[in-house]
Structures are given as C-alpha cells and as structure tokens.
Task: inverse folding
C-alpha cells in the first residue's frame, strides 16, 4: 500500500530511470509545443495505478499517468487505459483527487480492444499533436493497435520493447506455430530464419524489424540514438529498450537531447 492508502506498483531502479526519461520528455513536449499546437494529447495504453514504489530506495515515485498530470504546462487531454480492475480503481481514485482530473479519460479493459474507443475521444484536426507511451510488461501489445492508434495522426511514440523477454524465450517461441510475438512484431519469423549467432543477436534483429514496421506506418527513420537500452542497476543485464518514433524530425532532436540528459542524471543518482 502507498502512503495514500491505495495499491502501488513495486519497481526497481530501472523503472525509475525509465520514468525519469519519460518525465523529461513530457516536460519538453508539453512546454516546447504549447504555443505551436492547439491540442496536446497524452495517451498511456498501459497506465498502471499511477504511483510506484522503488523498493531498492524505499521511496514512492510518480507513475506515468501522474507524471502526465503534473507537467508545468498541462496536456489538453490525457487518455489512460488499464486492464486490471484493482489497479484501475487505484488509478481512478488518484486521478479524481487531482486538480486536472477533468482533462482525463479512463478506459477499463484491454488496450488492444479499447483503441477505437480512445480514438473517438481524441481531438480532430491538423492542429493537434499527441504523445503516446506504450509500456507493456511483456508481449501484451499488438502492432495492429499501434497502427490503429496512430493512423492519420501526428503522434510521437515511446515504446517499451521487451528485448530481454524475446532473448530469453526466442527458441521456445520459434518452435511454436503461433505466439504473442507474432502480434507484436508481425513478420519476425522471416528475420529469425537467417542464421543468427546468439539469442541476443536474434532479439536485436527482431527489434530492428519492429523499427522498420514503425517506419512503414509513417514514422521517420529510427536511428540508434532513438533507442535507449535499460539495464538492471546491479548486474547491468539488458532488460528492455525505449524506442522513440516521431513523424517529425524535430521531435527526434528533442528526444535525443532530453533523454540522454535524463539518463546521465539518473545514472549519477541510481547507481
Ligand atoms: C509496466 S505496467 C505500467 C506502468 C506504468 N506505465 C508506469 O510507468 O507507472 C503495465 C500495466 O499494464 C496493465 N496491462 C497489461 N496488459 C494490458 C492490456 N492488454 N491492456 C491494458 N492494460 C494492460 C497491467 O495491469 C499493468 O498495470
């Protein structure tokens, strides 16, 4: 339980680092873009309860939904999807206590099914820019959801890509006729068929293929600097990658500048 008496998400240093990067990007996005667009929307398909507890440091930190509610310059609208009832109830209570609660839409259910509903609530027109954070625990996200969410919209994406999950399971996954990976990275089997020396190499090749899929739906070329690898703080095990994608080159400059700075800062305090 958190200090506010509601359920909290228990995390390690690497999640705090992820959230610092996200928070830094949200700040530059919401402040840097406020005079350029009439509508700035934030979308969080895997919202969680709103608050996290870093058990290594014994401290509470804001989860992605509350980070989006606490930017200096507000988002016009905030869209939060969560599937687990208990988590969703905690999230809803935390949102309702917030002064910006009226800007928030909450969706209960599987984000892969809620996406059409969510799209109906987004502002329409050319004068609107979106930021979406896609933060599954594993393989819960489908590429078709990303396609449906982003179609005909200017939407920056920060995707938590499960590199280590792929690395650990790739042989077993490849031996099955179908898996959740087919939904997250359609076509990955063609990449995997080429001889790859290690499971890590296979996971990275699949990640590259995922980047190409994003480029295929209108995103700018995703360069190595657009990807931030997240490691455990003690054993430096590669866990997952934050992949940034934008339909605009300037967004990429912001991400590279802000995210690297946030990463350096968190390396000083989280190691
Ligand atoms: C990694 S956590 C999100 C943490 C949150 N983004 C943060 O940083 O505070 C993933 C959350 O997504 C939820 N979830 C899992 N599968 C989902 C799905 N298909 N649709 C919506 N939510 C889902 C889980 O219950 C969990 O709360």
Result:
């Amino acid at each position: 339980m958190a200090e506010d008496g509601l359920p909290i998400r228990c995390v390690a240093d690497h999640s705090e680092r992820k959230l610092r990067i996200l928070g830094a990007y949200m700040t530059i996005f919401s402040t840097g873009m406020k005079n350029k667009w009439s509508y700035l929307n934030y979308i969080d398909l895997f919202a969680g309860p709103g608050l996290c507890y870093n058990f290594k440091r014994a401290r509470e930190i804001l989860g992605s939904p509350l980070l989006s509610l606490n930017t200096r310059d507000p988002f016009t609208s905030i869209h939060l999807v969560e599937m687990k009832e208990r988590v969703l109830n905690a999230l809803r209570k935390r949102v309702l206590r917030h002064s910006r609660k009226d800007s928030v839409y909450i969706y209960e259910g599987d984000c892969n099914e809620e996406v059409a509903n969510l799209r109906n609530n987004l502002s329409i027109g050319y004068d609107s820019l979106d930021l979406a954070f896609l933060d599954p625990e594993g393989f819960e996200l489908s590429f078709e959801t990303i396609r449906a969410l982003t179609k005909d919209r200017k939407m920056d994406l920060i995707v938590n890509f499960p590199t280590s999950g792929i690395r650990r399971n790739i042989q077993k996954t490849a031996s099955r006729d179908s898996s959740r990976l087919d939904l997250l990275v359609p076509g990955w089997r063609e990449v995997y068929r080429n001889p790859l020396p290690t499971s890590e190499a296979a996971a990275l090749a699949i990640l590259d293929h995922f980047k190409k899929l994003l480029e295929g739906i209108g995103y700018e070329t995703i360069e190595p600097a657009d990807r931030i690898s997240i490691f455990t703080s003690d054993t430096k095990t590669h866990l997952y990658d934050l992949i940034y994608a934008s339909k605009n080159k300037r967004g990429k400059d912001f991400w590279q500048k802000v995210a690297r700075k946030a990463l350096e800062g968190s390396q000083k305090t989280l190691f």
